[in-house]
Amino acid sequence: MKLTVRGEYALRALVALGRDYSADDTVTRVEEISKREKIPRKFLEQILNDLKSARIVMSKRGVNGGYRLSQPPEKITLAQVVRHIEGPLAPISCVSENFYAKCSCADESKCPIRSVMKEVRDAISAIAEQVTIGDLVNRAKQLEQQTVSPLDFVI
Fold this sequence. Notes:
By secondary structure, this protein is mainly alpha-helical. It has helices spanning 5-20, 30-37, 41-53, 78-86, 112-130, 133-145; strands spanning 57-60, 66-69. The chain is globular and about 60 Å long.
């Protein structure tokens, strides 16, 4: 799995929407997310439209329009988002459960590379399926509260 800039921006936008999430229909404007997360507006609009097609976010049109998560942040997994934006979590296609493609080795069942890559896929999937946008929001809040101590250099 490789997370591109598009994938990173999608996650950052979802974390921003997760921070703003409420049970009512409150939306966050694209300009606000763009400014807060330092994501180019046009690129962000494309990403949010893509996430809308996956029903991860919802939009409201008009002067008071914007985007919001389609469900609570605790119900949207990292795996769900990454698979939609980036494709398979698996490092090679012959071990992918959702995007399988036959590899070039003579016998897949005896391929040592495939065997290891399957373990890598399982490890990535185990984490990505458990981590939610809500978890990322909580982690962001925790990281913001950490104090940074000045570096002490001695020569």
